[in-house]
Give the backbone structure.
Amino acid sequence: MQRLLFIFSCIILVILFALQGFQPQYQLPTLEQGEEEVQFPEGSGPEEALNEIYFNVDILGVQEVTTKVLVDEFGLSSSHWVSVHGQYTNGRFGIADVFIIRPRPGHEDDVRECLETIKLARMNLFRNFDIYDSYSLAENGSIYQRGDYYILLMIDNEDEVRSILRTYIPR
């Protein structure tokens, strides 16, 4: 009986190795490929960053930020930016908002004001409806510039998010 079990387990192992293959399916990064040398096509940096940021976010109700959302929900003018990226929550389960906007040339101050307007709107939403300390996160949200983009962060793990953005959005 033990001999049969041993033979059966050996056959299973051989089959697993044969089906799996002996070579890795991906190439490991080498020392020559530093993070600074990675070039992203236009607009893919923010999208890749958002995918990594929201990979571990457990809050329900996360929605994509689009020009239509900014115009309809926040009353902003779309004439100030070239592109918009981001994710935001509907507020029922907390807040985890990241807005990334690339301004048109000469409209940098307007985009900063737009992000301030978004921040104030989110603070007003959570003033009487504070779920999971959302009001504090909105109030302490930070607006800053990274490369060609202006960024608003209202998320719990802001330091980790900034690190991810540094990886995907060059200075």
The chain has one domain: 43-168. The longest strand covers residues 81-89. Helices lie at 2-20, 44-53, 67-74, 108-127, 134-139, 158-168. Residues 43 and 83 are 8 Å apart (CA to CA).
